[in-house]
Inverse folding.
């Protein structure tokens, strides 16, 4: 068997651990593994000198068919490393590939047949596609075109349907919680309100878990449209009790009642809308409403970086080895999912296009409400 491995979409702590698990599990079966660089880019540019996928490699290497050979030596010592040794991109959808035109605009073309042809030209038997909802949708569409594929769910947002957790989420929450711990002391010292923006376009898992763990006073998530006056009431109530500071955690996709999320950039050909800026907006509104000095902070890509936590390393390794077992069983068109205490498989068709949102009656929400945390509702 010849297996290809690709990583697509935003990076997440644990990607390298999945790659290592796939490679070592395959090698033990006598199979060979090959990495597709920067999403699927290297298959488009096969037979060319592609250069290194990241700063880890400094010299240029000509990879046959655009594939990087992966063996035990290539994946040695990478479990604890953040990022991905294969590189990644969120702008290379083969079914909607962005092409610059002569007039400076961008149009989308379907290059999926070219990608499938490159896959077959390389004599590959299976593809392990590691990614979030967008990458898994591409994997599903490739499977429908005849590519034997197994998906591995990856997103720090933890919003992939069918799996209790995705690797990278625990690390992102730990990073955000650590930031909140540090902000408490400076907020209290200056009697300030601190508004912290974390990732989460359509689901508020990071904001909820880090906000609760980091003793936030207000948590704003996409699932619960907020009323700013209620947020201000919470801050003023703390002031009346002598607590002259407050911590507000807001997911980037949070929106007010009868309002829309704040965008940095509208969606264009080959791209998705970029969320962001809600923390600065809310901070200004809180200052106007309460008179309190309010500062905003965007954690941004800090949540994607660094070494994965123990939980994420273990989950990633389990996912990688489970993907190889799925290939051995010929169970293609599936994605491996964590359904405690085991890792199972589910059809890709049951996962794509469905966002796993925070359940409003779930235990974490109930705990937060019991502790007096406001959701602005």
């Amino acid at each position: 068997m010849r297996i290809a491995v690709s990583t697509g979409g935003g990076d997440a702590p644990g990607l390298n651990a999945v790659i290592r698990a796939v490679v070592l599990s395959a090698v033990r079966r006598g199979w060979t593994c090959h990495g597709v660089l920067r999403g699927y880019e290297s298959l488009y540019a096969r037979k060319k000198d592609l250069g290194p996928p990241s700063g880890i490699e400094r010299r240029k290497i000509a990879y046959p068919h655009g594939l990087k050979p992966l063996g035990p030596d290539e994946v040695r010592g990478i479990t604890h490393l953040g990022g991905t040794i294969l590189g990644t991109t969120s702008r290379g959808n083969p079914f909607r590939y962005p092409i610059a035109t002569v007039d400076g605009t961008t149009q989308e073309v379907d290059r999926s047949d070219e990608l499938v042809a490159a896959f077959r030209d390389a004599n590959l038997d299976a593809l392990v596609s590691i990614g979030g909802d967008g990458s898994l949708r591409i994997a599903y569409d490739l499977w429908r075109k005849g590519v034997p594929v197994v998906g591995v769910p990856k997103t720090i947002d933890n919003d992939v349907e069918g799996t209790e957790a995705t690797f990278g989420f625990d690390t992102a929450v730990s990073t955000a919680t650590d930031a909140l711990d540090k902000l408490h002391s400076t907020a209290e010292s200056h009697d300030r309100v601190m508004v912290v923006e974390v990732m989460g376009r359509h689901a508020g898992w990071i904001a909820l878990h880090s906000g609760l763990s980091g003793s936030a006073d207000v948590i704003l998530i996409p699932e619960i449209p907020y009323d700013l006056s209620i947020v201000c009431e919470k801050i003023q109530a703390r002031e009346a009790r002598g607590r002259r500071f407050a911590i507000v955690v807001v997911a980037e996709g949070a929106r007010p009642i009868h309002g829309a999320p704040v965008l940095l950039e509208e969606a264009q050909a080959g791209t998705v809308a970029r969320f962001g800026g809600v923390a600065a907006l809310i901070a200004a509104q809180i200052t106007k409403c309460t008179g309190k000095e309010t500062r905003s902070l965007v954690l941004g890509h800090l949540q994607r970086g660094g070494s994965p936590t123990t939980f994420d390393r273990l989950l990633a390794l389990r996912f990688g080895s489970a993907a190889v077992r799925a290939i051995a069983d010929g169970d293609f068109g599936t994605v491996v999912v964590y359904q405690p205490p085991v890792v199972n498989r589910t059809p890709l068709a049951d996962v794509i296009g469905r966002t796993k949102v925070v359940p409003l009656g779930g235990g974490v929400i109930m705990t937060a409400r019991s502790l007096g945390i406001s959701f602005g509702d």
Summary: Residues 47-62 have pLDDT under 50 and may be disordered. The longest strand covers residues 2-7.
